[in-house]
Write a structure and sequence with these properties.
heterodimer; A: 297 residues; mainly alpha; ABC transporter involved in vitamin B12 uptake, BtuC; two-stranded antiparallel sheet; 11 helices; B: 248 residues; alpha/beta; Rossmann fold; six-stranded mixed β-sheet; four-stranded antiparallel β-sheet; 10 strands; globular
Chain lengths: 297, 248
């Protein structure tokens, strides 16, 4: 029984981070119809930024959260304003290609700057954990989950209550009407892409505390963000949160699977992506709009 | 109904909107040819014409969402030609688009607040209250999603959203489209109230009879060109207008 609880806990702890990764990806996709293939690279850059601040200046990774956000937000804003906005109305393949190119660029810059070696952010409290009802929980993962919940909560409030958040939602519904209300769409789009990058950066900081850092680390997170978005429903904060947690839990249980095909042993850890994607397929068959998604009018 | 003066505190329009030899279009399709029009401060002017004549494109060009090829749009001393739409809104020229174009998944309140997007003054809250005094129906619907409202209610929200920008010049595109005559009458009365506060109005209408009755002057647009203009009362009696638009 406690093995099940342990898997559940692991899944929730990992799912919180996935929710933050997916949230930024979901906003960019849902609001601008850009499938941002550079999203994983932003996660990676956030992780390296955290690593560098930790290694050079002993900045605690939790203190790096706002720094990652501001740096990546700024980079994302400028990229959208002066590059992606030029092709944002073009067919989706154009932005697909452009963001893929950006991703390659960032990954290779990281390779030059930090080499391909694995890096880690090992704080004094990295190994500490506690046991509750037979379930072992590392403090770091608990704190990153709490940080993830706070971040999604703040994003939700900001999008629903703030003037700019309202303008973002309005623009996603009707660009023309938003313009006629005085919204400068290029600016709003840049904010949205900045938010996407900023959230990816923050997720990278959270990830850096429990996972190894290397230039290609973003790619699996990009794929997971894609799945979580489709699971949860596009462009919604609740969708990213629920999708992230569901994905994390499914993945955690998938690692426990042991399969024997003939004499060949297949462990769950090798299959977790396959199983998670199979769950995605099933969800989409049952609920094509995603778990939290609404049918579009 | 609340007294109009209290309903919409506007700075009375003091500038004419002058459209001079305007040509405009989309991509490589020209829609407007050499259109010249003028709306003086405090006037209600009607723009009439059949489907596809370019009426909405003309409003789009004035609002900066349709690109101008040649000619100019000026509001008083200020050129609006090729200016970003947000600058045109802040200059006081605000459009109520055809089909209402509300933000369907936002509440009525949020739609009205979107109208005040460019404003940073402290009177937004009191203006919201005035809108609800002016349009009591919206008070009951304040927290509803705009997409859930009836057509007449949506048109009220669309007009109120534009008023929240404190326009001096209101461009209203096909206000009556798809609405029952009794609702149209109510909206016409609303326009009269807005007009009394000093706002100039350009109405674009397929309902030519109504348009000519509420306006002082009118322009007829045919395939992108102004073919006729003059006092509305005169156009109502014009045999060509009668034949083409009034079905008499």
């Amino acid at each position: 029984m406690h093995l099940v609880l342990q898997d559940l806990a692991n899944g929730i702890l990992a799912g919180g981070i996935l929710a933050v990764v997916a949230l930024g990806f979901s906003l960019v996709w849902g609001i601008m119809n850009i499938i941002n293939l550079a999203h994983g690279a932003f996660v990676m850059l956030g992780a390296y930024l955290t690593y560098q601040l930790f290694a050079s200046f002993h900045v605690d990774p939790f203190l790096s959260l706002p720094i990652s956000f501001v740096v990546l937000f700024t980079a994302g804003y400028l990229l959208q304003r002066y590059l992606i906005n030029w092709v944002v109305r073009a067919p989706i393949l154009t932005t697909f290609l452009l963001t893929f190119g950006l991703s390659l660029l960032f990954v290779n810059i990281a390779l030059i700057v930090w080499t391909g070696d694995q890096r880690g952010v090992t704080t004094a409290y990295a190994g500490a954990n506690f046991t509750l009802a037979g379930v072992t929980i590392p403090w770091v993962k608990l704190y990153t989950l709490l940080a993830a919940l706070v971040i999604t909560g703040v994003m939700h409030l900001w999008l629903t209550r703030s003037k700019t958040g309202r303008a973002i939602r309005a623009t996603s519904m009707d660009i023309g009407a938003a313009q006629l209300s005085g919204v400068r769409v290029a600016h709003i789009y840049s904010i949205v892409y900045g938010l996407g990058a900023g959230l990816a950066g923050v997720a990278g900081t959270l990830i850096s505390m429990s996972y190894a850092i290397n230039p290609n680390m973003g790619e699996p997170f990009l794929i997971k963000a894609f799945v979580v978005c489709v699971l949860g429903g596009l462009g919604s904060v609740q969708g990213a949160l629920v999708g992230g947690l569901v994905y994390g839990i499914v993945e955690a249980f998938a690692t426990q699977i042991d399969l024997y095909i003939g004499t060949q042993h297949i462990s769950g850890s090798g299959l977790q992506d396959a199983i998670a994607l199979a769950v995605l397929l099933i969800v989409l068959i049952v609920r094509p709009t995603g778990i939290m998604g609404k049918a579009t009018a | 109904m609340t007294a109009p003066a209290a309903a919409t505190p506007q700075t009375a329009a003091s500038r004419p909107l002058v459209i001079d030899a305007l040509s405009a279009g989309y991509a490589d399709t020209q829609v407007l040819w050499n259109v010249s029009m003028r709306i003086d401060p405090g006037e209600i002017v009607a723009l009439i014409g059949s489907n596809g004549a370019g009426k909405s494109s003309l409003l789009g060009a004035v609002s900066g969402v349709v690109s101008t090829w040649s000619g100019s749009v000026r509001y008083g001393e200020r050129s609006l030609t090729g200016v970003e739409p947000d600058r045109i809104v802040s200059a006081g020229v605000v459009q109520v688009p055809q089909g209402r174009r509300l933000f369907g998944s936002l509440t009525v309140e949020d739609n009205l607040r979107m109208g005040a997007y460019l404003r940073n003054d402290r009177e937004v809250e009191s203006d919201l209250k005035r809108m609800l005094d002016l349009l009591p129906r919206l008070r009951e619907r304040y927290d509803y999603l705009a997409g859930r409202l009836s057509g007449g209610e949506q048109q009220q929200v669309a007009i109120a959203r534009a008023l929240m920008a404190r326009p001096q010049m209101l461009l209203i595109d096909e206000m009556s489209l798809g609405l029952a005559p009794v609702l149209v009458d109510q909206l016409i009365e609303l326009l009269a109230q807005i007009h009394q506060t000093g706002v100039s109005i350009l109405i674009v209408e397929q309902d030519v009879q109504t348009a000519l009755e509420v306006s002082s002057r009118a322009y007829v647009l045919e395939t992108g060109r102004v073919t006729l203009s003059g006092p509305s009362a005169q156009l109502l009696d014009d045999p060509l207008v009668k034949k083409a638009y009034l079905g008499v």
